[in-house]
């Protein structure tokens, strides 16, 4: 039942915010903040109480072991249930959603000053949709949330975004974002349906349940085509390079809260989807596809980094660095080693923090300078309180400085991938040089060099300082001691890896018969 | 012979006709707008209630009409959409300077025609129902005849509809010449024994063209945008909902049972038409700046999706068609209802240019919210009925392995998104120097407001929990296989 509340709380909070508009402009903000705090607290309580370390140990004979499960029939005609389940991976990501949700509310405290209630309605609906995505293990329900969260995001960009240069209005960016994701989502719907009908042909029963569909035998070609249907949907959102066209625009035009959500958690839903659905449902096809996926990841690493170097808009720059980082995530996911998969989780969390920090920083710069153009900045060091210092920290985190969580993640991904694909690792590691370059460019252009004038700017106020300090503390904490994260997700990652490699000891998980064919 | 069971089954149709007669006599005696509307609505509600009784009494078949579950579904759809249209007409016609009452008379006649049409199992009743449905529509479309566009739309519909009727009649004649029968079952048996042949197929094809006109399937769609744009709001709404639903159901009935339609190449033709309809409808909608035209093209596209059910024609097809029709009707009624309410009371041409809708959310928030829900539903976004409909259609295409059609649906939906989103965001844009709320305070209390709000809630409810309707549909349509 608590799982249902995790999903419902943001939705209810959103509706409250909408109506709270009439009680003054502070009311929606506080309600939104409290709502997200509630989600975070619920998750943390679950984390402390539950045991996520070795759920497979006491696995039953015929079901996948979830730490927690909740299920009611929804559309019995097709065997569709409202089926929510929690394991270590979803727990970590939901906690992340709660935290970044709070940040998103906080960082729009001053930025958004019209239609406040409606803004927070959209913000909380996105977060509710994301939580739903992380919890749903009925494929229909998953798709339902996956598509549903696009609408409020669309509104967020279209109504509260910034219009950029000529021909790059916020509405265009929003429509581009929506069409990219919706079109790829429909491909996934087709793939889901084809899978369901294959299952129907096999057993005579309709079911959208994850556990049932895992055991669907498919011909090699069919599995490949369906896997691609899932992969493309996730690849658009991750984004993987040829499908990334929406991301820079959406990031650049979105309000700060939108960017924080996009980079922090929406991109993570894609990685989650790959780990939860694309790999386990089609292990053999995924394995065949792995070299291509890793190559795409490599392309992303370099493409994002090189293009980041050439940007003038600070938010576009950060957006391209996201593409680069997600390249590493993709490599890690398809490497098939448990170490790399765990690294992916750490990297996802770390990137969420560092990207959120950078976007919040650029939002604060924008509030002070009224521009995001790098050429109109420069020489700001020492002129706006502690913001430059924090920026340095986040830039360092983003380039993967040891001591930050990003370093741990990237290191684990590369280290874990080395045995299976040494060439990819060698080339990918070179890509990290570019990370240093764009990071330095960012710092240099904004804070050093000749200044345009000597104007002093406001320093950070308590709210901004707390936000940045909080994120930074977490970056360092997980950089120095990532063990809690690894413990929580190791069981899940072990299962994914087992499926992928087809090397799981017989009997421990029911899917082993399927995975065995992958050899 | 006419037994009490037959009388019982005919009650809904008789009630609607009786209402029409009552309204006519009432007009002759004394003109009273509110009373006329009230009587019409009362009559339709009675018919709906009697329909429930008829439904529980079981199937009844007469030589001309059949009252099975499919025709019940059709009648419910026709009656419900007529009811919604009538409610909106009252608000709309309040401001009309000419005579108001005849509009209700025409709409009631058309509804009776639609009910006969969905129950027809004889070419005579098919033709009779179709004409009874279409004739009053000429009058309804040209009702505000002082407005040039309305007159134009009425005449355009008259001419093209007459042409379509000619096709239909010719097709019927060819089929009759081959089989010597006019009742659909006998006709099919005759065709089967004579082995069909080129003339029978030509007849079937010509009938398809005739019905395709009414459904505005590409390439027979040319009249749709003009007629939708020019006709008064309630008439256009009726045309887009009740009329189309009735024609589609009769087409569904023919295709389901006719062996002449089970030839592979005819399926290919239907498939081609479906693909063409969804793509062309969506593409043309892209360039519209008038909301009624845009909705017209979008309805063309939606019937393209619906045709998939006819192409597949087995398995889930009937259920899918039922579900999709219901979602389409709810959504279209809502969207057209908002347009109609914004143009109410009548004051010249309808408020349908897109700039009328700029910043609507800040002027009339609830109406804008209703339109948003309807547009999302038309686009097939989760949490709305449209998503369930689209899910069914895609599922049907995937199950039958018609990959081209599935591709068409995806491409069409993506194109569709672009224009739905464009309209949707317009509603929320702030304009400099915009007026505050300009809605009359009590509009939501009025019947029209209640109807659109209710429709929006239904769209959401059906999107979130579709099980009751799905159960109803799977029972309702099971014996047709």
Describe the structure.
The complex is a heterodimer of chains A (519) and B (481). With 519 residues, chain A is mostly helical. Residues 57-62 and 503-519 of chain A have low confidence and may be disordered. Chain A contains 20 helices and two strands. In chain A, helix 14 runs antiparallel to helix 18 (462-480), helix 14 (338-369) crosses helix 19 and helix 15 packs parallel to helix 18. Chain A has helices spanning 2-20, 26-49, 88-107, 116-135, 139-148, 150-160, 170-203, 210-213, 220-237, 246-253, 256-281, 283-309, 314-335, 338-369, 387-398, 405-417, 422-447, 462-480, 483-501, 512-515; strands at 68-75, 80-86. A two-stranded antiparallel sheet of chain A has the order 1-2. In chain A, a hairpin with a 4-residue loop joins strand 1 and strand 2 (80-86). Chain B has 481 residues and is mainly α. Chain B has one domain (11-476). Chain B has 19 helices and two strands. Chain B has helices spanning 4-29, 33-57, 69-93, 102-119, 123-141, 148-179, 184-194, 198-215, 224-230, 233-257, 264-286, 291-312, 317-342, 360-363, 365-379, 385-400, 403-428, 447-464, 467-476; strands at residues 60-61, 66-67. Chain B has a two-stranded antiparallel ribbon with strand order 1-2. In chain B, helix 9 crosses helix 12 (291-312), helix 12 (291-312) runs antiparallel to helix 13 (317-342) and helix 12 (291-312) runs antiparallel to helix 17 (403-428). Chain B is globular.
**In order across it, which strands form the biggest sheet of chain B?**
1-2
**Number of H/I helices of chain B:** 19
- Biggest sheet record of chain A: 2 strands, antiparallel
DSSP strand content of chain A? under 5%
- Bulk shape of chain A: globular
Residue-averaged pLDDT of chain A: 86
Share of residues in helices of chain A:
over 70%
Biggest beta sheet attributes of chain B: 2 strands, antiparallel
If you average the pLDDT of chain B, what whole number results? 87
- Summarize the helix and strand pattern of chain A as letters: HHEEHHHHHHHHHHHHHHHHHH
What integer value in Å does the Rg of chain B equal? 21 Å
């Amino acid at each position: 039942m608590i799982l249902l509340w995790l999903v419902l709380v943001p939705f209810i909070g959103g509706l409250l915010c909408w109506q709270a508009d009439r009680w003054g402009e502070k009311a929606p903000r506080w309600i939104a903040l409290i709502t997200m705090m509630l989600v975070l607290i619920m998750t943390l309580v679950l984390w402390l109480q539950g045991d996520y370390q070795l759920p497979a140990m006491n696995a039953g004979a015929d079901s996948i072991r979830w730490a927690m499960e909740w299920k009611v029939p929804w559309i019995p005609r097709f065997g569709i249930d409202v089926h929510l389940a929690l394991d270590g991976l979803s727990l970590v990501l939901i906690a992340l959603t709660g935290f970044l949700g709070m940040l998103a509310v906080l960082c729009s405290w001053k930025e958004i000053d019209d239609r406040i209630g409606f803004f927070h309605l959209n913000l909380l609906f996105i977060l509710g949709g994301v939580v739903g995505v992380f919890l749903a293990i009925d494929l229909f329900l998953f798709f339902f949330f996956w598509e549903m969260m696009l609408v409020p995001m669309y509104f967020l960009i279209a109504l509260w975004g910034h219009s950029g240069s000529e021909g790059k209005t916020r509405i265009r960016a929003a429509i581009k974002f929506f069409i990219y994701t919706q079109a790829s989502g429909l491909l996934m719907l087709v793939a889901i349906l084809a899978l369901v009908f294959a299952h129907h042909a096999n057993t005579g029963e309709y079911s959208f349940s994850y556990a049932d569909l895992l055991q669907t035998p498919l011909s090699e070609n069919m599995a490949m085509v369906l896997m691609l249907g899932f992969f493309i949907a996730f690849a658009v959102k991750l984004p993987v390079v040829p499908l990334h066209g929406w991301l820079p625009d959406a990031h650049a035009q979105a309000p700060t809260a939108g960017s924080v959500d996009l980079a922090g958690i929406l991109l993570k839903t894609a990685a989650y989807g790959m780990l939860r659905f694309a790999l386990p449902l089609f292990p053999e096809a995924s394995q065949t596809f792995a070299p291509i996926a890793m190559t795409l990841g490599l392309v992303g690493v370099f493409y994002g980094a090189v293009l980041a170097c050439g940007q003038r808009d600070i938010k576009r720059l950060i957006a391209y660095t996201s593409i680069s980082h997600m390249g590493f995530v993709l490599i890690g996911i398809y490497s098939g080693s448990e170490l790399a998969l765990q690294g992916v989780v750490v990297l996802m969390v770390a990137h969420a923090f560092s990207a959120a920090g950078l976007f919040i920083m650029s939002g604060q710069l924008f509030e002070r300078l009224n521009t995001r153009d790098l050429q109109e900045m420069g020489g700001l060091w020492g002129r706006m309180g502690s913001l430059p210092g924090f920026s340095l920290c986040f830039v360092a985190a983003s380039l993967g400085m040891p001591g930050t969580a990003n370093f741990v993640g990237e290191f684990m991904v590369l280290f874990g991938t080395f045995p299976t694909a040494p060439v990819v690792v060698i080339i990918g590691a070179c890509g990290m040089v570019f990370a240093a370059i764009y990071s330095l460019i960012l710092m240099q252009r904004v804070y050093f060099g000749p200044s345009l004038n000597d104007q002093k700017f406001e320093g950070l106020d308590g709210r901004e300082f707390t936000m940045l300090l909080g994120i930074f503390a977490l970056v360092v904490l997980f950089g120095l001691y990532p063990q809690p994260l690894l413990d929580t997700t190791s069981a899940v990652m072990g299962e994914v890896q087992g499926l992928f490699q087809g090397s799981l000891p017989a009997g421990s998980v029911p899917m082993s018969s399927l995975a065995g064919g992958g050899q | 012979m006419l037994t009490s069971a037959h009388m019982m089954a005919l009650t809904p149709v008789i009630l609607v006709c009786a209402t029409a007669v009552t309204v006519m006599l009432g007009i002759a005696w004394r003109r009273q707008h509110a009373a006329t509307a009230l009587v019409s609505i009362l009559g339709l509600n009675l018919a709906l209630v009697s329909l429930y009784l008829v439904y529980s009494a079981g199937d009844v078949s007469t030589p001309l009409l059949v009252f099975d579950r499919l025709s019940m579904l059709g009648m419910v759809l026709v009656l419900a959409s007529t009811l919604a249209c009538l409610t909106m007409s009252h608000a709309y016609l309040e401001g009309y300077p000419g005579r108001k009452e005849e509009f209700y008379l025409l709409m009631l006649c058309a509804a009776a025609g639609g009910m006969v049409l969905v129950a027809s199992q004889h070419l005579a009743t098919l033709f009779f129902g179709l004409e009874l449905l279409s004739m009053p529509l000429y009058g309804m479309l040209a009702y505000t005849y002082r407005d040039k566009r309305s007159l134009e739309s009425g005449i355009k519909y008259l001419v093209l509809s007459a042409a379509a009727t000619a096709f239909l009649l010719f097709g019927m004649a060819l089929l009759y010449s081959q089989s010597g029968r006019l009742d659909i079952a006998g006709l099919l048996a005759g065709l089967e024994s004579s082995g069909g042949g080129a003339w029978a197929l030509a007849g079937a094809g010509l009938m398809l063209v005739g019905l395709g006109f009414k459904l505005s399937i590409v390439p027979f769609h040319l009249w749709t945008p003009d007629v939708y744009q020019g006709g008064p709001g309630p008439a256009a709404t009726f045309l887009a909902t009740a009329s189309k639903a009735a024609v589609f159901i009769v087409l569904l009935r023919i295709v389901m049972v006719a062996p002449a339609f089970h030839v592979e190449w005819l399926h290919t033709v239907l498939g081609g038409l479906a693909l063409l309809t969804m793509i062309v409808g969506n593409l043309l909608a892209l360039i519209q700046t008038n909301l009624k035209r845009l909705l017209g093209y979008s309805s063309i596209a939606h019937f393209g999706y619906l045709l998939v059910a006819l192409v597949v024609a087995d398995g889930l097809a009937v259920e899918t068609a039922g579900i999709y029709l219901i979602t389409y009707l709810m959504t279209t009624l809502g969207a057209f209802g908002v347009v109609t309410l914004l143009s109410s009371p009548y004051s010249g041409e309808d408020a349908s240019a897109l700039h009328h809708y700029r910043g609507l959310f800040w002027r009339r928030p609830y109406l804008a919210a209703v339109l948003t829900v309807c547009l999302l539903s038309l686009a097939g976004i989760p949490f709305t009925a449209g998503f369930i409909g689209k899910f069914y259609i895609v599922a049907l295409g995937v199950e039958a392995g018609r990959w081209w059609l599935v591709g068409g649906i995806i491409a069409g939906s993506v194109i569709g998104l672009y224009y739905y989103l464009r309209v949707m965001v317009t509603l929320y844009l702030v304009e400099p120097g915009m007026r505050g709320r300009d809605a009359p305070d009590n509009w939501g209390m009025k019947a029209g407001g209640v109807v659109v709000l209710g429709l929006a809630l239904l769209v959401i409810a059906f999107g979130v929990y579709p099980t009751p309707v799905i159960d109803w549909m799977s029972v309702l349509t099971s014996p047709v296989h």
